[in-house]
Every structure is written in structure tokens, then in C-alpha cells.
Amino acid sequence: MRDEAAERALEGLSAAELDHQAAQERQAAAQADANAKRVAAEAAAEEKRLAAEADAEAKRLAAEAARLERQAAEDKRAAGLALHQDAQAREEAARLDHDAAQRRAEAARIERQAAEDEDTARLTARERAVRKVARMVLSSGTGTVALYDIEHACGVKQSTASDYLTEARTLIANGYGQEHAHA
Hints:
It is built from five helices and no strands. It is an all-alpha fold. The protein has a domain at 123-180. The protein is rod-shaped and about 175 Å long.
């Protein structure tokens, strides 16, 4: 009987051990399952974080590309405007050059006509020089001419140029300008 009791005790102990071992295995399986779920959740969270970072970086790069495209378009527009302004400035310079050439031609024509008139009137060299200074004063637009310019144009010294200028102003005051202003 003892053997039977020992066998039953041994069976009871084995059953208890087996129950305990099964409980430990269930607990280990539950813990492994919990660990697997935690690791999967962490991996999913990390994947979401990385995806969000990648999405944010893609949006930042797209915004930067759009900004660069806008800047390039603005630079292209500014370059086009600069080219247009340059073309306008060149056109204006050409027009001014043409106008200046026409004025020089007109001044030369007037000077020739004046020389012919002076020849007809049989003026002295001094009277011709004074009339030349008068034309210089009239064509200056301001009514003033530098003595240096008179010296150079008439080939005289400063004192003579000053005398010519004084006489030219008297000549203009006496009406010389009205008869030659539009000639």
C-alpha cells in the first residue's frame, strides 16, 4: 500500500509539477507574446516616426524646389526686364546721337549761311568773330559761353575773348538773335 500511496503521491507530485511547469510555460508564452507585441508596437511606432520624418523632408524639399523655381522665374523676369531697359536705353542713346548730329549739321549750315552773309556785308575779321560769339551765346541755351570756348573757337587770348563776348551781348541786345535764331 505504501507503494501505491507513494505512487499516488508521486503521481500527485508529478501532476502538480506538470501543472506548475505548464503554468510557467503559459506564463513564459504570455510574456513572450507580450514582448513580441511590445516589440511590434515599438517597430510600428518607429516606422511611423521614420515615415513622418521622410514625409516632412519630402515636403520641405518640395517647398524648397518650388521656392527655387519661383526665384528662377523672378531672376528670368528681372533679366528680361534688364534686357528690355538696356534696349530702351540704347534706342534712346541712338536717338540722342541722331538729334545731336542733326543739331551739329544745322549749326554748320547756320555757320555757313552766316559766313556767306558776312561776306556779302563785307565785315571785318573782328566783326565776324563777334557774330560767331553771338551765335555761340544764342545756341548755348543758357545765354552763357565760357571764355575758354571763345578763345578756342576764335583763336584769341582771354582778354580779346572777353571783349568779343561783351560786344556779342551788345549785338544780341540790338536784335541780332531775332534775325538768326531760326535761320
